[in-house]
Amino acid sequence: MEWAMAELINNPRVMEKARQELDAVMLGKNRIVDESDIVNLPYIQAIVRETSRRVVVDGYDIPAKTRLDPNHWENPLDFRPERFIDEDGEYCEPFGFGSGRKMGPGISLALPLLHATLAAMAQCFELKLDGILDMEEKPGLVVPRAHSVTCVPLPRIHPFPSI
Fold first, then answer.
1. How many CA atoms within 13 Å lie on the side-chain side of 146?
2. 60, 145 contact by CB (below 8 A)
3. In the predicted model, what is the mean pLDDT of residues 16-38?
4. What is the pLDDT of residues 51-80, one digit of tens each?
5. What's the Rg (C-alpha) of the chain?
6. Which CATH superfamily is domain 2-155 in?
7. pTM of the predicted model, to two decimals?
């Protein structure tokens, strides 16, 4: 979640595109996005998948012949959720990424929550940085951030809809 929010803050074009999709699907700002809306939010799905796509982890290149071989990605270091949107504007998985026997058993619970939380944050708040956003990683099993994201959430929706 923290990496996804950091990428959205660092990429205002992506944040704006996500908000345009949210505003169109939610038909305004009368209610907050929930898990049942995610199927209609392909760009939000693509943002989550792009956040998970890694070519370098803690300074080490993923070896050639893996599913994340940098030769398979155009501009692999750029944050571009459009990689996971097909020509019809639908969410797609070009390499079957994130599936199969080695996928974590909790992923089916975590992903819907991640999608809905990320979408709600983008829908409801402007995130103003409190300092500089550093994208440095530190060693660890799940590629933790070296420095936490510290920002000030300002309401984007006035008045805030009831839940």
1. 11
2. no
3. 90
4. 887 655 555 555 544 555 556 667 777 888
5. 16
6. Cytochrome P450 (1.10.630.10)
7. 0.77
